[in-house]
Design brief:
Rossmann fold, 15% strand
């Protein structure tokens, strides 16, 4: 199973899911999680931009190539919304995955329930903890309930 891990980059939720899924037949992919590299990839490859808008635009376009590939190839897309920052890109990824008919698991705390109600409605599961994502993957692959 191919799983794309989208969303916030400020906590270790990806590592928790990847280590928890050890032994399962799962391949994980994700966006570049080095914030500076993600911001600067466009100008690093395509040339400097004096205007911050075009600097960001180049980076967003280059990153979109990776994101579109990862989501398109995925069987399951996990989208994490963290507490500290608004992840507009994560909401976009969830919408893109929904438009492609991908199975989506949304991961966020209870305090985001109202703000993310439309995103949650497009998901097949809404989890609050990374371990719940692992339990979903284990159940889907093996039929085993948490025990």
């Amino acid at each position: 199973m191919k799983v794309y891990l989208s969303g916030e980059i400020h906590t270790d939720w990806r590592e928790q899911i990847i280590s928890g899924a050890e032994g399962l037949d799962v391949t994980f992919s994700s966006p570049v999680t080095d914030h500076a590299a993600s911001d600067d990839c466009g100008v690093a490859v395509l040339g400097a931009e004096p205007n911050k808008y075009w600097h960001d635009h180049k980076g967003a376009m280059v990153n979109a190539i990776r994101t579109r590939k990862g989501i398109s190839d995925a069987d399951v897309v996990v989208v994490r919304f963290g507490d500290k920052y608004k992840q507009w890109n994560a909401a976009f990824d969830a919408g893109y995955a929904a438009a492609l008919g991908k199975s989506i698991i949304v991961l966020h705390g209870a305090d985001h329930q109202h703000a993310l109600k439309e995103v949650d409605a497009a998901a097949l599961a809404v989890a609050e903890e990374p371990r719940q994502v692992v339990e979903i993957l284990r159940y889907v692959l093996t039929g085993a309930l948490p025990g």
